[in-house]
Fold this sequence. Notes:
This protein is α/β, with parallel strands linked by helices.
Amino acid sequence: MNYLLIDANNLACKAGCAYDSTTTTGVDTSIVFGFLSQFASIRSDFLDFRPIVIWDGGHDIRDRVSTEAVNKGLIKEAYKENRKRPGGYTLDSTQVRMLQEFLRNTNIPQIKLDGIEADDIAASYCQKYKGDSVVACITMDKDYYQLIDTNVFVVRRWKGEQEVLNTEMFVERYGVSPAQWVDVGALSGDDGDNIFGVPSIGEKTAIGLVAKHGDYMSAILSVRNRLSAFRDEYPDLTDESDWKELESYEARGNKVYDCCRSNVEFSGVALARERKQLKKVNRSDVCLAMYIERARIAYELKAMRLDVIIPDIPQFDRYDADKVNSLCDLYEFSALRKKLHLFKDLP
């Protein structure tokens, strides 16, 4: 049996942004209709795969890790805290409940575990089934790249286009292995999830460093070893005025040296560099040396868990045609009626 893992929150977010569907009575159904339409299209391409819709159940472990880091002054905000700010995108919970109700009356299983994110659940299913089955992960979340393996691939869909990423394609495109993708994230961070990486290190630079050194820590230790002689000449900062000067420097309008108090290693080298006393030292190298703890945190937040206790994937025979048809009438989903067999007939 092959498996089709649907990152439900990701697909629902895409639907909410891409579709505009409202009933004649003014009920917004954009997420519901968009999700079901996309799901039907996906299923038609993967008829031999058993689909599983996986929902986020929270992110307790990452919350704990990031909150501890905030309390230590290592990062500014907790994991996904940016989504709570004005303008941060959140799913319409009413439409999510409508969507989940629709799926409950079909043969499509839904998995949600309290406190566990969908990607960790998917990762654990991949780990469990990839030895004997082919597993396709439907998502636009690049974190899933670290799961790509011989029998695991990631399917990305946008604007009518579809891309299936396997190991060979991934390595050719990025120059690192899928297993090294988490190391890339440890250095570059992730703005979408509010994961703070190393300042001045973007994805392209991070990929180059990981490709050269093998992993994020080896890249950092190489730079720290190279800059260690300068640290003897410019010791770590302890004076408040020096800290304030260092924190005043910006790059592209953003503060560079934030959250780096309490005798951070190589902070003196950083200040010397900004004062142009070390003209041949790159800012990105100094940041790599300084932000080793932040990179460790980012790695822990980016790494998918493979040890989640997951339930067996259920196989239902519960398709309720009357209920499904009544929901299609209620939400005015006439265009979906010809595709309802995709929610009933599973391998």
